[in-house]
Amino acid sequence: QHEISKLRSRQAQWEPFAWYKEMRENSPVYYDTEQGVWNVFLYEHAKRVLFDHQLFSNKKERSLIPVPRNDNRSNVNSSDPPEHRKRRALLAKAFTPRNLKEWEPRIQAIVDELLTDMEGRETVDIVKELAIPLPVTVIAELLGVPSKDRSQIKFWSDILFLPYAKDAYHDIAERKAQTMEDFCEYLYPIVQEKRKHPADDILSDLIQAELEGERLNDKEVVLNGIGLLGAGNETTTMLLSNMFYSMLVDQPGVYRELRADMSLVPQLTEEVLRYRFPAAIDRKVAQDTDIFGHTMKKGQMVVAWIGAANRDESQFHDAEEFDIHRPGNHKHLAFGAGPHFCLGAPLARKEANIALTTFVKRFADIGLVEGFEVTEHLVDSAVGQSLKSFPVRVER
Ligand code: HEM
Q1: Measured between alpha carbons, how far is 232 from 230 in angstroms, rounded to an integer?
Q2: Ligand 1 pocket at CB < 6 A
Q3: How far is the CA of 95 from the centre of ligand 1 (A)?
Q4: What is this structure's pTM?
Q5: Which helix H or strand E contains 280, and what residues bound it?
Q6: By alpha-carbon position, which residue is closest to atom 30 of ligand 1?
Q7: Which tens digit of pLDDT belongs to each residue from 2-21?
């Protein structure tokens, strides 16, 4: 017997992997009668849910994943093709490969500054000194908002991604609504200014982006900007934090391997995304259908457990092992799949790869701090599992 409360608490666990395995093996397509929710755990099923927008819609009245969503025209995620294609195309104009190439030196400079601050010390906090400040500084700078405001932006973005606690649902909803208002009020004059004087940044790109004669108005630019700030922050913080956790706990020794051959860094990034990004994505069944050996009804919800799919033995040999050399690790679903595939994936990968390569060049070795207890450092998040602080020994 599984109830939704149990599912939720599993999702919030630091290591739900044994439960994922049990579900893949015993109940790979599990219907939660109480909530009217299907749960799929196998790679092929999760991928189908993400790809097949005709059967599994992202236009939903409720969401089981408590991250901010809204129904306004500019929210790229809560729509289906063909409407989605247009919203996404406008946004994608700010995320071209050429832009990404141009951003590289800016990301490198931010990483250098953060790592220079760590110099001369024996212990550093990977989360507080690198994993949190890097993504927020990068996205604030790329968007073109003043970097002096970054702790305010991080503060807002953390509230927007707070999970909804059952007993405090309304309080949290109210805090989120207020935060959204404050954030819009802050960004609106910045956008108006950029419309008059475009600069070399994402907000200016969004203002100028045109598709079939349509452009975004100021409000839409503001909402898209907030969407990017939110989407790019906590997720990338988790990737960076989990990267160090994996190097120290999942495969000690891999750090020295990277020191000897830094070209392995991107392989490590992919394996961390596969191995330690236990997240879930939900959709709404758009029409009655017989699928995965079951009958799904229009209006029911489906949760694709991508963290479980990423350890499916049919796709990844010895899936429970952390192995940066396994071919095909990049097939993981941590960035989703299909029409909603993460727009920021190249940026997140770039940040992680630059940060780790620079770190490995500067520090000869890393080690766990004595007495470190992971359970005392877990973050309370709706997005996935990670740490709120991670003290690590470093050697020059
Ligand atoms: C969508 C994960 C970083 C912007 C998604 C989705 C996932 C995801 C799973 C698909 C959601 C769905 O199917 O409904 C991640 C992870 C990241 C990351 C694991 C870091 C490790 C970023 C960054 C940005 C970004 C840095 C931008 C600055 C977006 C946007 C979408 C999206 C705009 C919506 C795309 C659409 O609906 O068409 N992300 N993301 N993400 N992500 Fe990311």
Answers
A1: 6
A2: 50, 58, 76-77, 88, 139, 228, 231-232, 235-236, 239, 277, 281, 334-336, 340, 342-344, 347-348
A3: 12
A4: 0.92
A5: strand 280-285
A6: 343
A7: 444 555 555 557 788 988 99
Q: Left (φ > 0), alpha (ψ -120 to 50) or beta: where does 299 sit? A: left
Parent domain of 72: 4-395
Q: Exposed, middle or buried, 250 (CB in 10 Å: 0-12/13-18/19+)? A: middle
Instruction: Work out how many domains the chain is built from and give that number.
Output: 1
Using the atom order of ligand 1, give the atom closest to the CA of residue 338.
Answer: 13
pLDDT (tens digit, 9 = 90+) per residue, 304-322? 999 999 999 999 999 999 9
ipTM above 0.95, yes or no: yes
Residue of 64, 342, 353 to test ligand 1 pocket, by largest number of atoms within 8 Å of CB:
342
CATH number, domain of 114, equals 1.10.630.10
Compute and round to an integer the Cα radius of gyration of the chain.
Answer: 21
pLDDT of residue 12: 57
* Gap from CA of 187 to ligand 1 centroid (Å): 21
Q: How confident is the model at residue 246 (pLDDT cuts 50, 70, 90)?
A: very high
